[in-house]
Amino acid sequence: MQAFNYNIIPSRMLVVLVVVILVFGLISPNAVLASSAVTYNVVSLGAKGDGKSDSTEAFVSAWAKACGSANPATIYVPIGSFYLSKVVFSGEDCKNQAITIRIAGTLVAPSDGNAANWLLFQHVNGVTISGGVLDGQGTALWACKSSGKGCPRGATTLEFSNSNNININGLTSLNSQMFHIVVNGCENVKMQGVKVSASGNSPNTDGIHVQLSSGVTILNSKIGTGDDCVSIGPGTTNLWIENVGCGPGHGISIGSLGKDSQEAGVQNVTVKTATFSGTQNGVRIKSWGRPSTGFARNVLFQHIVMENVQNPIVIDQNYCPDNEGCPGQASGIKVSDVTYQDIHGTSATEVAVKFNCSPKYPCTGIQLDDVKLTFNNRPAQASCFHAAGTASGLVQPTSCF
Ligand SMILES: *[C@@H]1O[C@H](CO)[C@@H](O)[C@H](O)[C@H]1NC(C)=O
């Protein structure tokens, strides 16, 4: 008897459950539908993956539909090559805080370089981009710039501006006209498995640029480009970069800081487990040689391999391109508490460690711990101006504090 009851109760409950679902569904089918995530396929909305038809309207309408509902929504871009003119994805009238843009294909930019941004997300909250290739079509513009003719400035490929809770997974950015990915005024941005690829001599094609943002994480990414792999601008705090390959490119750079006289500082930056191959710099802090209110502090560079890098470890506080607007002045940027730990490999120049700090605000709290860099199979050299700190473990070249 007991065993019989045991069996019958769950199946009765199942029947009740099914009846409830059916009745609820009949009374209010929309409510049942709306409770599950909706997918908008851009092709169903008129996009054409032929590489030349303008699919902008279909993407704009997919965004409007996704924003119209408070329930999670996916915008799906199937395989194909979709040409898009400049698109602004605005979150200002967006009810949705869980929009995923899942891209199987390639998005293709206009090559004229006339817009400052190509794909711009602003004031959005809770957006994920998953997969996909963004083709910035920058090669013609780079050629124009190198010919010295008057050329348009070119577009940033992808920018998130004043946005929160952003995920970028498995995205590839090719041949951007200017910066590939910009994070500006954002909180809680996670990028994983991002690939950036552009020619080593393409101008101003920074891989990922972060500024005025907090809680940005960049993981498991590979960046080869003509400018900084990652550039870290004023007002960046709590930035975490881990397992990143860089090259070709200008390295991972905090700066340029101090371009403006009033500037927010950079604080709590970690760069962990990175490889630099044939790059101009490895880990760099760079500021203009003129007065400013900014700073860079609490920075950790850890577990880093340098392969034939021109300036593996560098702080340069005398940046003054074309000697304009700064001669005879000293940088106001205060650099402090920067740790270099477990950094090994080869330098392409004799001086592998360069601390060229501000005479007005010398660098303080620089720590070298287990650093070994060679040039032509011999210990490289270090040079210090206005830098104070400590060395521990094996440090080669011998520190110059
Ligand atoms: C530094 O940033 C990391 C994230 O990169 C964060 O987890 C940590 O709490 C921050 N530390 C401080 C003291 O704010």
From TrEMBL:
Superkingdom: Eukaryota
Pfam family, one: Glyco_hydro_28
SMART domains per record: PbH1
Active site residues per record: H250
Subcellular compartments: Secreted, Cell wall
SUPFAM superfamilies: Pectin lyase-like (SSF51126)
Family per record: Belongs to the glycosyl hydrolase 28 family.
UniProtKB keywords: Cell wall, Cell wall biogenesis/degradation, Glycosidase, Hydrolase, Secreted
GO molecular function per UniProt: polygalacturonase activity
Keyword Kinase: no
InterPro entries: Glyco_hydro_28, PbH1, Pectin_lyas_fold, Pectin_lyase_fold/virulence
Any one Gene Ontology BP term: cell wall organization
Protein's name according to its UniProt entry: Polygalacturonase
